[in-house]
């Protein structure tokens, strides 16, 4: 069956619009709302059998119809996509059941792929050194899209402050707040939950260098000019921190591409987990703190995790890396195992 292009405005059942309105009260991102629509369409299209998804009735939502639809959906989708789609439909059916629109939520009776217990993968020290070294050695380019100071500070902010991709995109200049001992970044995280991440002199200086280059590259209107080296206060607090070549807030795609380009230039693209760009830098931030024996509670606060169990994964990963490093000690090749002695 041909897939219908995704559109948040595509006609859907009225009760699904009510569900989206209910979720909207929680202030989800536009990306999250689009994901709800995509996952809904992915299953609804199989249930209605080629008709418009707007024709899906509440009476059509049964254990058998959902089980069949998910079985077909699973044939062409990865386990992670199936789990996400299952979660969306579980949320939808829970809403419908709570609103007394269906007799029960059938989703718990529908199987889904298990989540693998994989540890977060951080970049090894030699890869980080190569990445920073490549950024420092990069020569000025005549291409307008190349911007050394900006790309360098994007990577440093992800690496030294642990920001997510969406947090980097959404950051404003006013979120950088100088303190007596350095500065903090006021981060708007998942679920609109704010956190404060302290930053030190190297990152502050990189941010200032970037803003100085920005004032030269993108001159501001008269009365709002910033001389090279100007402090954060000389910029409008609501101005986007990271911008593209056009001076507008940087897009998610541009941000990811600039990080990917830096990985490739440093020759460390093979060191990252598949699909992990900004998130790979965030993993490295977390694992390095865990290696430094930062408490799981403090790690939770710095990363903006809702669950301490999520932060604990980095503690576990750090312990595994430490053990693997110790096991490579060449002295183990010299020491012979003890000989059993009978008494």
Automatic annotation (TrEMBL):
Residues 6-97 form the Core-binding (CB) domain. SUPFAM superfamilies: DNA breaking-rejoining enzymes. Residues 118-327 form the Tyr recombinase domain. It comes from the Bacteria. One of its GO terms (molecular function) is DNA binding. One of its GO terms (biological process) is DNA recombination. Keywords: DNA recombination, DNA-binding. Pfam families: Phage_integrase (PF00589). PANTHER family: INTEGRASE_RECOMBINASE PROTEIN MJ0367-RELATED, PHAGE INTEGRASE-RELATED. Belongs to the 'phage' integrase family. This is Recombinase. It comes from Mycolicibacterium aromaticivorans JS19b1 = JCM 16368.
């Amino acid at each position: 069956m041909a897939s219908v292009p995704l559109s948040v405005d595509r006609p859907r059942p009225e009760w699904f619009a009510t569900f989206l309105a209910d979720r909207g009260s929680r202030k989800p991102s536009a990306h999250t709302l689009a994901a709800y629509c995509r996952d809904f369409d992915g299953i609804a299209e199989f249930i209605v059998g080629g008709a418009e998804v707007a024709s899906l009735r509440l009476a059509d939502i049964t254990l058998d119809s959902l089980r069949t639809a998910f079985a077909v959906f699973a044939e062409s989708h990865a386990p992670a996509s199936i789990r996400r789609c299952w979660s969306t439909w579980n949320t939808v059916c829970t809403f419908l059941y709570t609103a007394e629109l269906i007799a029960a939520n059938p989703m718990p009776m529908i199987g889904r792929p298990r989540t693998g217990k994989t540890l977060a993968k951080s970049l090894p020290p030699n890869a980080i050194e190569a990445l920073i070294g490549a950024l420092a050695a990069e020569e000025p380019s005549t291409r307008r899209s190349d911007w050394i100071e900006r790309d360098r500070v994007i990577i440093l902010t992800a690496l030294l402050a642990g920001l997510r991709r969406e947090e980097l995109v959404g950051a404003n200049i006013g979120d950088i707040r100088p303190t007596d001992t350095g500065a903090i970044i006021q981060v708007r995280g998942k679920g609109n939950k704010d956190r404060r991440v302290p930053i030190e002199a190297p990152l502050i200086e990189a941010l200032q260098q970037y803003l100085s280059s920005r004032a030269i590259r993108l001159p501001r209107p008269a009365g709002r000019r910033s001389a090279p080296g100007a402090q954060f206060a000389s910029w409008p607090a609501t101005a986007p921190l990271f911008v593209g070549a056009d001076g507008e807030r940087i897009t998610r795609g541009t941000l990811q591409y600039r990080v990917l380009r830096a990985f490739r230039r440093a020759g460390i693209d093979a060191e990252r987990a598949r699909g992990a760009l900004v998130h790979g830098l965030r993993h490295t931030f977390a694992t390095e703190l865990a290696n430094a024996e930062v408490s799981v509670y403090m790690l939770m606060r710095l990363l903006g995790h809702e669950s301490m169990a999520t932060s604990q994964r980095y503690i576990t990963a750090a312990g595994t890396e430490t053990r693997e490093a110790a096991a490579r000690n060449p002295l183990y090749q010299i020491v012979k195992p003890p000989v059993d002695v009978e008494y």
